[in-house]
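TA notes, week 10

Several of you asked for a full example with nothing omitted. So below is the full record: structure tokens for the whole chain, then the designed sequence directly under it. When grading your own attempts, check the secondary structure regions first.
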């Protein structure tokens, strides 16, 4: 199998930190304090607009589309979260008239990531201030109430991700752990701590499956790992086990992982590699394909699977300011 570069887009004047795709729209986050919006549904992806009205004073670190809506959240190093939206129209893939709906304050330091729950009811954010905040959003995306501040990580929290169909949240941290959170008795509690990485955990992503509950993660220790849920005890605590350490292909920190709906895991990081892994019938994982220098000599900060029509695509963002779109065969 091979990975093929379909398109190479110079979108930003500084590093691209994150990408997020939804229903044919892609948003990008960059150190240049701009958000770019692209239409992915054509043969070639093309820019439809940018969000930049000096809302943020520092790098935009993360972007996340609210499920089944045209509302976008963006987290910044200026410690705030901006919420953008527009009315849904037939030409929403071309119309870039987004407006600022809300500016959320609360974190004491840089916001490192934002993520929406599968039902769009909750927005999670995490920060250098070692905390994870859960916000309840109104339907219009204009009012946000903080319903829980989770402070059990001992260091900078790098990433948050929700399970695709249940209200289970994973947070990844500079303290080398992943914590899993869920609502118990009207409050959000840590129900599991995943230990094993020997360095900062940069990112995690849940498997898109209803038959099993698994999570992949990546770290400064250059590994990609898969964790599996086993059971829950009477107190609501969850037992997870390390199921696999994927083949050790990366030579340096792995910054981003993404688990596709077809069961493939993609990873990328500071060594510039883009790697695809496939699970074998015996439960072991193999390298399906790899692409060296996915962004030339630059580090690659983000990878995400997205489906456009019947086609599964990969999108990456790097320190070179480019967003690259990939296919595989």
């Amino acid at each position: 199998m091979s990975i093929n570069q379909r398109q190479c887009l110079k979108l930003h004047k500084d590093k691209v930190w994150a990408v997020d795709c939804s229903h044919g729209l892609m948003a990008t986050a960059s150190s240049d304090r701009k958000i770019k919006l692209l239409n992915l549904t054509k043969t070639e992806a093309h820019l439809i607009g940018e969000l930049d009205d000096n809302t943020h004073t520092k790098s935009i670190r993360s972007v996340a589309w609210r499920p089944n809506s045209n509302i976008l959240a963006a987290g910044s190093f200026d410690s705030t979260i901006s919420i953008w939206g527009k009315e849904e129209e037939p030409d929403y893939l071309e119309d870039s008239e987004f407006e600022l709906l809300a500016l959320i304050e609360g974190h004491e330091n840089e916001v490192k990531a934002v993520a929406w729950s599968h039902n769009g009811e909750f927005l999670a954010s995490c920060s250098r201030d070692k905390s994870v905040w859960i916000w309840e959003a109104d339907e219009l995306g204009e009012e946000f109430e903080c319903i829980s501040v989770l402070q059990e990580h001992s260091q900078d929290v790098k990433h948050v991700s929700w399970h695709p169909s249940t209200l289970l949240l994973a947070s990844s941290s500079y303290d080398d752990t992943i914590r899993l959170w869920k609502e118990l008795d009207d409050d959000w509690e840590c129900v599991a701590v995943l230990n094993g990485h020997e360095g900062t955990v940069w990112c995690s992503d849940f498997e898109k499956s209803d038959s099993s509950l698994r999570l992949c993660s990546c770290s400064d220790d250059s590994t990609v790992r898969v964790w599996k849920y086993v059971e829950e005890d009477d107190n609501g605590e969850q037992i997870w086990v390390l199921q696999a350490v994927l083949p050790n292909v990366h030579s340096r920190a792995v910054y981003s992982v993404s688990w596709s709906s077809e069961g493939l895991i993609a990873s990328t990081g500071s060594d510039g590699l883009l790697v695809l892994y496939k699970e074998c019938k015996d439960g072991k994982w193999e390298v399906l394909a790899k692409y060296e220098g996915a962004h030339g000599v630059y580090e690659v900060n983000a990878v995400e699977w997205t489906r456009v029509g019947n086609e599964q695509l990969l999108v990456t963002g790097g320190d070179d300011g480019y967003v690259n779109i990939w296919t595989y065969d």
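The mean pLDDT is 95. Use that as a sanity check on your answer.
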